[in-house]
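Lecture notes, unit on binding sites. The following record was shown on slide 14. It pairs a sequence with zinc ion.
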Amino acid sequence: MPIQITTLSENTVASVNLLAEWGLSILVEADGYKVLMDTGRSFSAAYNAITLGIDLSQIDKIVFSHGHFDHTGGLLDILKMVKGEREVIAHPDIWALKYARRSERAMQYIGVPFPREAAETLGASFNLTKEPVWIGENIVTSGEIPMITEYEKIDPNLYVKEKDELKPDPLWDDQALFLKSEKGLIIIPGCAHRGIINTIRYAQKLTGVESVYAVIGGTHLISASQQRMDLTIAELLSFGIQRLGVSHCTGLPASAILAHVFGKAFFFNNAGTRINL
Ligand SMILES: [Zn+2]
Ligand SMILES: [Zn+2]
């Protein structure tokens, strides 16, 4: 089964003609399906697809890794190119009122930046579920990811507003895409807010496949402590990962450490990066 993974939007770009934008959008082609994992923050995914010669009108499904604006905000621009109804697979909590603490006093809304009806008018058909969704024989969305490691915690600056009260966001909506390949699992996290190791372990459990070939996407190690970094690296090494393409919320210091540890297996997965398997 040939697999192609093309990153359409990321904080940085791989080539001169593309747009960089804080966020993530990855096009996964496998099992005869074209699945768009996240849509970036605004129009960069749509713009970059045109620049890369990718016809987004052909995508079959859209998956949201979670409800933050930098993963969902490009949906309307994508839907305008799709023309027609498309299933959008996501957790129901993507519509929660999500906030981030930016300073002692400043809270910023960081949830989905458009009303649900606006997307539905343009053809979005939301499949909101907490469960995994098998898109093809070898492609599955994770659904809710159990948090089992001791050292992976959700960023304490992320909140959700319920009845005018701000509470820590449990990010139950955080999910990843898992692909089964001949070489092993390919794991595509959006932000891995519930922990990249938790995400990988759950991929193994859900698919029954032990070997992990690649991790491609956001790992949210941007604010990880030294201890969390050390424990995360030890587990990543124990999985025997052969391709580690980090993006977005991994952050530069963590990316530099991972590049050093993983050597040739490491690459920075930014907009325009394409992987063929
Ligand atoms: Zn996020
Ligand atoms: Zn993000």
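Take-home: The mean pLDDT is 97.
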